[in-house]
Amino acid sequence: xxxxxxxxxxxxxxxxxxxxxxxxxxxxxxxxxxxxxxxxxxxxxxxxxxxxxxxxxxxxxxxxxxxxxxxxxxxxxxxxxxxxxxxxxxxxxxxxxxxxxxxxxxxxxxxxxxxxxxxxxxxxxxxxxxxxxxxxxxxxxxxxxxxxxxxxxxxxxxxxxxxxxxxxxxxxxxxxxxxxxxxxxxxxxxxxxxxxxxxxxxxxxxxxxxxxxxxxxxxxxxxxxxxxxxxxxxxxxxxxxxxxxxxxxxxxxxxxxxxxxxxxxxxxxxxxxxxxxxxxxxxxxxxxxxxxxxxxxxxxxxxxxxxxxxxxxxxxxxxxxxxxxxxxxxxxxxxxxxxxxxxxxxxxxxxxxxxxxxxxxxxxxxxxxxxxxxxxxxxxxxxxxxxxxxxxxxxxxxxxxxxxxxxxxxxxxxxxxxxxxxxxxxxxxxxxxxx
Length: 435
What we know:
Blueprint: H1 2-17, E1 50-51, H2 53-63, H3 65-84, E2 91-97, E3 112-120, H4 126-192, H5 198-232, E4 241-242, H6 260-282, E5 288-296, E6 302-309, H7 319-384, H8 390-425
Parallel strand pairs: 1-4
Antiparallel strand pairs: 2-3, 3-5, 5-6
């Protein structure tokens, strides 16, 4: 009978300890961005032969091991939050006294059996503190996932810009090599006709050798850029071609306080506050109560027993952990201010770099390239007519190639500045982490 009674008490305590999931509402102050859903599988297989920027970003999000790890961290934090919501388990105690002794207590004649259930009451606010801390840690992990996704997008954009610049430099190197080869042929004909000294022919051959060497270097750089992009996507075989442009629509306004890095720093400050509250609750009294049944075998009588145990905070009141947590709050606040200042500076620098790059691109695309191309055309006609020297034609070719190279570099700088602004503009509300 006493065992049945104790079992019923255990069931009642367990029932009162359970809390419906619907009653556990996350604190909106620490709520993070939308929770990322783990995709059914990570995309594998080769990349498309022709890769555009939009497709590269899509492939990265479907293949990236970094995003898989970040999603797993979020799920782990969600599991810790679920665990934090549980109350302490009751403890079943069974005591058998007065047996195997001497005289009337020999054998089991004088045995007293006590069955009791003890429950830690958790009155000091520990459960609420645990839940608040776990909710804040989940929000921080969700922000870290969003940051990993935004960082991946920026890396893809930068590597794609590098690949497009390498592709354009390769086209320019091929054009320069074709022009140098034609110039070498013309110079050889003029030398054979006696209209140019042999030294000019050697100079043209040297220019051709330099152009050929530059072409080989450009080919290697272009292949390396495609391999680097493929490696970031976790693929061994790079795409055969990068198509399209690296252009992005730059965000009109980027609010530093709404960036993911600042929001993560704020979430970490909330974590520090929650850790301080938890440290304080650990120093409070947390009693345990128990109730049970005792049976005296000798008389067959039964009696209820009750117990109350309270820890005495004589020495340890968790003072050290409270002091450490208080310092942690101060450090989190300072880190948040530092992240905000750095983010504001990065946004301002990216804006300035974008304005400068756009000005360079506009100047070169407007009149700079056209003037250099026309000067080269006139120099070629003049050289063939014998009205100008080989050196003048080589100077015109160099000026045109230099202008083209500056345009390619300006476009890449513009794309990188746009990528930085897009990374900072990836606010949590705009990041669909379920994809």
